[in-house]
Amino acid sequence: MTRPRLIVCVGRFQPPDRRHLACIEAALAAADEVLVVVGGADRPRAVPDPWAADERAAMLRACFPKAGAKLAIETVRDVVYDDERWAEVLRARLAQTGATDIGVMPCGRRGADVYAALFPEWRVVAPPDGDTANEGLALAIFEAGGLSPALRARVPAGLHEIIACDLATAPFQELAAEWAHIVEYRQTWSAAPFPPIFVTVDTLVTHGDAVLLIRRGRRPGLGLGALPGGFIDRGEYLFDAALRELLEETGIALPREVIAAACVANRVFDAPYRSLRGRTITHAFHFDLPPALERPSVTGGDDAADAHWVALRDIDSRELFEDHHAILQVVLGID
């Protein structure tokens, strides 16, 4: 087989570990050029994803000071519930290189079979150790309260001081408090005979070019924007739960029957790791209010610190809780 001109290494690198570096080193040895694609450019800081994409890219560059122009590192956004849409984003970026002989090396949780199906025109290059997934490394750092000796062995030495300094900053201290809350929350269910599966509802209310959001007033996700929603009550229908949560958290000034009549769709969102609290499956209901209707006033209540209408063009995915931006992507088709 001929030497590929370009190998693409795809992962989250949260943070980069020694196995990631081994993948990139192998790619540099096997191809003329290497493009490292760092995922999650549009994600807020969270315990599993505490470092922003540009911070992870800077860490990787620091690990390869002599690679020069042979190594390019770029960040890309996520499209959680639409693999084909995400693949088109990456495919469009690679088209700019003009390369026709491209190899792709998985450097995360997703295996070679996924990339082979998404990019049949590219060749899949196996990572050197066959398994490079480091999912949970960031979480392990919070569990240990820092870089324990075992974790230091997994992280490149040149990143130890960077990570230690980051952990002392206010954003990371806030994430440590978030993790402490999650640990306490999970303890509530620790005696259950099986890991619980939670069922929630979310409400996506649109009026013209605006969507109704809340700002979370409690952990997890304190201060982040979110769709109104929450857990269903015992004996409650999903649709009734959606209406109840919407009214409790936004106080939307419309009769219940008017809101109910505006429901145009509902969809299940079930990414296995969408919530740190545990396996949580949400049912999202889309209420599209008639354009002729005057935009109703809203007031935050219950778990919401406030409620407000936001123009779709002004939504910042980095300020939304869990996968709520991904839900907007799927339901409304936004970027």
Structural class: alpha/beta
Uncertain runs = none
> Counting H and I runs of at least 4 residues, what is the number of helices?
11
Helix content: 25-40%
Distance between the termini: 38 Å
Shape designation: globular
Radius of gyration: 22 Å
The chain-level mean pLDDT equals 93
The number of E-state strands comes to 12
Largest sheet: 7 strands, mixed
Please write the string of helix (H) and strand (E) elements: EHEHEHEHEHHHHEEEEHHEEEH
Portion in beta strands: 15-25%
Tag the structure with descriptive keywords:
alpha/beta; 7-stranded mixed beta sheet; 5-stranded parallel beta sheet; 12 strands; 34% helix; globular
Verbal overview:
By secondary structure, the chain is an alpha/beta fold. Helices cover 34% and strands 22% of the residues. It has helices spanning 18-30, 53-63, 83-95, 112-118, 137-144, 149-154, 160-167, 170-188, 238-250, 256-261, 324-332; strands at residues 6-11, 33-38, 71-75, 102-106, 123-124, 197-207, 210-216, 225-226, 229-231, 263-269, 279-289, 304-311. Strands 6, 7, 8, 9, 10, 11 and 12 form a seven-stranded mixed β-sheet that branches. It is globular.
Set out the fold topology.
Elements lengths: L5 E6 L6 H13 L2 E6 L14 H11 L7 E5 L7 H13 L6 E5 L5 H7 L4 E2 L12 H8 L4 H6 L5 H8 L2 H19 L8 E11 L2 E7 L8 E2 L2 E3 L6 H13 L5 H6 L1 E7 L9 E11 L14 E8 L12 H9 L3
Parallel strand pairs: 1-2, 1-4, 2-3, 4-5, 6-11
Antiparallel strand pairs: 6-7, 6-9, 7-8, 7-12, 10-11
